[in-house]
Design goal:
The chain is mainly α. Helices cover 50% and strands 9% of the residues. The longest helix has 23 residues, at 46-68. The chain is globular and about 55 Å long.
């Protein structure tokens, strides 16, 4: 239901970009059927993350059910949405979307049917930021093997384990430097980062006579992890998931613990070209993908290695969430479980009914904060 503007107006008294509650903010996205849940402050612990954001989900979900007979649904893509049904935000800040729509074709899944779990990792100084960025670039291609949750779109089964990332790769092909190869390039300084990313796509935007408010903007960088200098953080954008808050917390704990291990081990990083090839394989085949990582040959083997690294470097509280990731590695990502169960159910009914049944269960999982199995 393309009603985010109506919901914000009902909650806020007027249409705005977002509504701020005590511990979270509920806001708009490009698509009028997609909303953002964002914490007002960084979390002090994984448990605080889970408790705060689950309360946010329940508060908005209750309002939606009472006022609109609507549910919240997670995962990386809406399974039924047809592009002609999607609507773009038409209120405040719409000029940004209008300018982008003159450059890119919005009517594709990489724009109108896409949502992601975004994790922000804070840093102190430039040296720490660069180390974190490069370690994350080395890890990034293998995260979707565990975090993928988009095997269905337009009421059909996709050939990709991570359909969201497949469409994300091509949604800005008119200026390919904005997305790059999703895996961020290794850099040695903020200056170099700006030169090979921000300055490059700014020059291309200028050649297309883009308005000033789109130039030199860090948020326009669409790689799987980007610097957000305004809040001294690196924003990870490569994950689908959003199955439930508990699962997103588990992914957060996994990534943070693995990065500690990578930074302490100081082993040589893989060539950027290898990371790109491995990511492309994982987008297609998930945990079963053949990869060039020395801990391969399959993505599942690499994820097992990173899980051991996480276990060795996790805090006691983080360790309580890691079994969720372990189960994903051994039994399959949410994407593979959805695919398995939809196909199994479709043997007894038609495909649409099977999709509705499985995604109804996923909507319930989100409400009850339970991991799908």
């Amino acid at each position: 239901m393309a009603i985010v503007d109506r919901v914000i107006k009902e909650l806020n008294g007027r249409i705005a970009n977002c509504v701020r509650f005590k511990s979270f903010t509920f806001g708009k996205e490009l698509q009028s059927h997609v909303a953002e849940f964002k914490a007002n402050m960084p979390f002090c612990s994984p448990e605080a993350f889970e408790e705060s954001m689950q309360m946010a989900v329940l508060e908005i979900a209750d309002f939606l059910e009472r006022k609109h007979d609507a549910w919240l649904l997670g995962t990386g893509m809406h399974p039924l949405l047809r592009l002609e049904e999607a609507k773009v935000w038409t209120h405040r800040d719409r000029k940004v979307y209008e300018a982008l729509s003159r450059i890119f074709n919005f009517y594709q899944h990489g724009w109108l049917n896409i949502q992601a779990f975004q994790l922000n990792l804070s840093y102190g100084n430039e040296e720490e930021a660069i180390e974190l960025h490069n370690a994350l670039a080395n890890l990034l291609p293998y995260i979707p093997a565990v975090s993928a949750s988009s095997p269905v779109y337009e009421s059909k089964i996709s050939e990709y384990a991570d359909s969201r990332l497949h469409f994300y790769q091509i949604n800005q092909k008119e200026i390919s430097s904005i997305t790059g190869n999703i895996v961020p390039e290794y850099v040695n300084s903020f200056k170099e980062y700006r030169q090979i990313t921000i300055n490059k796509y700014t020059e291309e935007l200028q050649r297309l006579n883009a308005p000033e408010y789109l130039l030199n903007k860090e948020w326009l960088n669409s790689r799987g992890a980007v610097f957000r200098f305004d809040r001294k953080a690196i924003e990870i954008r490569i994950m689908d998931e959003q199955e439930c808050i508990k699962a997103d917390v588990a992914l957060s704990c996994f990534i943070r613990a693995v990065l500690r291990g990578i930074l302490s081990q100081r082993e040589p990083y893989l060539p950027h070209c290898v990371l790109i090839e491995d990511l492309n394989s994982i987008i297609k085949d998930g945990l079963e993908a053949k990869v060039q990582h020395p801990r391969g040959p399959a993505a599942r083997d690499v994820c097992r290695y990173y899980f051991r690294t996480a276990l060795e470097n996790a805090s006691d509280e983080e360790k309580t969430y890691l079994p969720i990731v372990k189960k994903r590695i051994e039994e399959g990502s949410l994407s593979s479980l959805i695919r398995r169960d939809v196909l199994k159910k479709a043997q007894k009914t038609d495909l649409l009914e099977a999709i509705l049944s499985i995604y109804s269960k996923l909507a319930k999982n989100l409400m009850e904060n339970e991991v799908y199995s």
